[in-house]
Amino acid sequence: MPARPLLLVISPGDEISRGYCLEQVAAAYDVVLLTGREPSWEKPFIVGHALVDLGDPAAVLAGGRALAARHDLDGVLTWEEWHLVATARLARALHLPSMSVEVARACRNKAVARTLFARHGVPSAASVRTRTLQEAESATRTLGLPAVIKPAAFAGSIGVIRVDRPEEVRSAFEFASTSASRSREDTSVLVEEYLDGPEISVECVTHRGMSTAIAVTRKHLGPAPYFDETGHTVDAADPLLSHVAPAATAAVKALGITDGVQHVELRLVNGRPRLIEVNARIGGDMIGHLVRLATGIDLPKAAADLACGRAPDLTPTRSAAAGIRMLYPHTSGILTERHINQPFAAHTPWLRQIRWIREIGDHLVLPPDGDLYTARAGFFIVTGRTGAEVTERLDVASAEITVTTRANR
Question: Domains (ranges, CATH) in the chain?
Fold first, then answer.
C-alpha cells in the first residue's frame, strides 16, 4: 500500500471551531503539527509534532526546518489568519507549494489590499490610512459620514466600528487603535467609506490561477456600531452565487493568489458587490463545515491538496443548506445559566450540533469592552433543504436555548 502524503499544519486552532479541519485533512493525509502547546485532542489525527513559540517568526521557521529534517514533507498549511505570512515564509524556505510571502502580507494588510483592488478595477471602498486622531478626523471629512474605522491588520471584526457623527470619531479611533496596537504586522488604522448593504462572503478555491466560487455565505451581524458576526447560512442553490462570483474571483486575482482556499468578504450596495477583504484561508465560525453540509465539498481537504501541489476535487455531492448561530448573553456578566430544551434537542434531527464554549461562572463581555472571544457562550448548527428553511429553523431552535448572565456586583 503506497504511503500517504505528509502535510505540516501550522497551528491547528481550537478543537471546537477548527477540529473539523484537522479531522478532515487527516482522513487523507498524514499530519505533523507545528504548535504552541502540547497536543491533546489533536493526537488521533497526527503522526508527529514540534512545540514552538508561534508568535516568533524565527522560531516557526526553525521549528519547521527541524520537522522537515525528520519528515519528508509534501506541503505546509495553516487555516489560522495570524500565521499566513509565517506559513508562506516556511513553505518558500522548504521549496514547497505556497503563495508568496508578499502575497500573504497583502492579504493580511487591508490597506495594501485596497490599493491592489483599485489598481485592478475591483469594486471596493474608499480608504485612508491614518496614524493619528487628527488624520482620522480629516479622513472622515473627506470621505463623509457614516464611515468605518478599523485596524489595518487584524481579524474577526475586532476593533471595527461605524461612525455616524463627528463627535464619535475620537472614541472610535481609540477603539480601533487599541486592537491595531496588538498587531505584529501593521499598527495603523483605516478610515473607510461605509458600504451600506447586506454582508456576505464567497468561499473560493484557486488552483493554478483559476478561481472557483464554491458557495456564498449570508452573514448576520450584531447590533451597530460594531460588526460582530453572529451567524451564517449557506445554501447550495443560492442564486446570489453567480452574481457575486466574478467580483470575488477578481479580488483573489488582484492580490496575486494562485493557489489555496479563500474566504472573500463583500457587501451588496444597491445590489452590487463591493469588496471588504480577502482572507487567504478557510473561513472561521465553522463556515467550511457549513459548506460541506450544504454541498458536500470538503474545503479543508481542498486546502491540503493545494498545499501539496495537487488538484482538488470540487465536485458537489449534495444540494442542501446549513446555518450556524452564535449564542450571546443579553448583557455582559457572569454566566449563570446555559441549557437547551433536551426533549426538543432529542427529537429534532435537523439540529445537527450545539456546542458550549464557556462554562458556568465565566465572565462574558460584549462589545465595546469585549469581542467575539469574550462574548460568545456557544453556537448551534442546523440543516435544511433551503436557506429560508434553515433561517426559520435557526429561529425555532434559538427559542429553545437559554443563556443567562448576572451583572458583576
Answer: 6-98 (3.40.50.20), 126-193 (3.30.1490.20), 195-319 (3.30.470.20), 320-409 (3.30.470.20)
